[in-house]
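User: Reviewer 2 asked us to show a designed sequence for the structure in our supplementary figure. I'm pasting the structure tokens here. Could you produce the per-position amino acids so we can include them in the response letter?
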């Protein structure tokens, strides 16, 4: 597995990967904007030359890093790759002065246990947060 920073020329492959592995839809231009604003905060995982994971974040006021996306292909889940991508984001956030990391997860998602295992705590609930009307749990921890 290789962990690399996302490059704009990988956009089409990234969009296809996300469409296959996320329920939420995003406009491709959003990823180029995220990458241009904070290149160190956008990482991908490749296995055999194929994207199998992605993580991106944004820097927020108040020394916070917000994880926007953390997703892995099903065949590489539960092998430490999500942790590695998240650690890359947090290390980049620390370099920029972030002291806290925050994210949202679907209330019924298995990801909540993953985040709890990594030291995240639930701090808020966002009703009707997702496109399908589902609620989100806001989670946070020190960087």
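Assistant: Here is a per-position design you can include in the supplement:
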């Amino acid at each position: 597995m290789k962990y690399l920073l996302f490059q704009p020329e990988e956009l089409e492959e990234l969009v296809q990967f996300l469409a296959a592995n996320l329920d939420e839809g995003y406009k491709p231009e959003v990823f180029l904007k995220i990458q241009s604003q904070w290149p160190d905060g956008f990482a991908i995982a490749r296995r055999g030359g194929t994207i199998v994971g992605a993580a991106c974040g944004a820097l927020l006021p108040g020394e916070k890093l917000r994880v926007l996306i953390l997703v892995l292909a099903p065949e590489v889940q539960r092998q430490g790759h999500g942790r590695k991508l998240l650690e890359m984001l947090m290390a980049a956030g620390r370099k920029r002065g972030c002291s806290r990391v925050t994210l949202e997860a679907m209330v019924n998602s298995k990801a909540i246990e993953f985040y709890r295992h990594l030291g995240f705590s639930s701090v808020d609930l966002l009703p009707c947060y997702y496109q399908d009307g589902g609620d989100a749990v806001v989670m946070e921890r020190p960087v």
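For the response letter, you might also mention the following. The domain at 2-142 is CATH 3.40.630.30 (Aminopeptidase). The mean pLDDT is 93.
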